[in-house]
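Lecture notes, part 5. Sequence design as translation. It can be helpful to think of inverse folding as translation between two languages: the language of shapes and the language of residues. The source text, in structure tokens, appears below.
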């Protein structure tokens, strides 16, 4: 897939699941996309659950969703922090309103729940937040990757290949 100048935004906060952040970033870059990491503070170093660092290139508050074609939310414990930022929830709502691909894996569903965009959607996540997903009005499926329109969800690191294949397919259809 040629990136055709496509850009994706990957949200970041401390205690992200290392593979769930880096595998999508690297896979999208391999596919020709530009991927920016956005954290609470630009140029801050965020540390994953297993010690892998990542530097935010921009802050949530300075990001314009219109400049991006897709959004990624990592798993780990970061989503519990990310969903507390009003700027993050506003970004998620903007991507949703524009029907741009939103990828979420593992605990990342918490962010979409807090943005109140899952009602009536089919999704998956780590089984540990299944009740949360269902209580938000979603239908939870135990599958490696679930696509419902522009929302692509996945369970955990072993499902990353299926997740990114599905994400890239949705992104390509939006061309």
């Amino acid at each position: 897939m040629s990136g055709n100048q496509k850009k994706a935004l990957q949200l970041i906060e401390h205690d992200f699941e290392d593979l769930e952040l880096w595998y999508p970033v690297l896979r999208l870059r391999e596919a020709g996309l530009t991927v920016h990491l956005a954290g609470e503070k630009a140029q801050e170093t965020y540390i994953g659950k297993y010690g892998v660092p990542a530097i935010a290139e921009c802050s949530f508050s300075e990001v314009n969703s219109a400049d991006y074609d897709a959004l990624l939310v990592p798993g780990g414990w970061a989503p519990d922090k990310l969903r507390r930022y009003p700027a993050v929830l506003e970004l998620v709502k903007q991507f949703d309103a524009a029907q741009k691909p939103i990828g979420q894996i593992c605990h990342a569903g918490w962010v979409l729940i807090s943005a109140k965009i899952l009602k009536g959607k089919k999704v998956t996540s780590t089984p540990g937040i299944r009740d949360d997903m269902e209580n938000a009005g979603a239908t939870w499926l135990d599958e490696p990757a679930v696509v419902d329109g522009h929302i692509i969800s996945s369970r955990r690191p072993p499902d990353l290949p299926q997740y990114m294949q599905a994400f890239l397919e949705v992104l390509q259809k939006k061309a």
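The translated text above is only one of many valid answers, since several sequences can fold into similar shapes. The mean pLDDT is 96.
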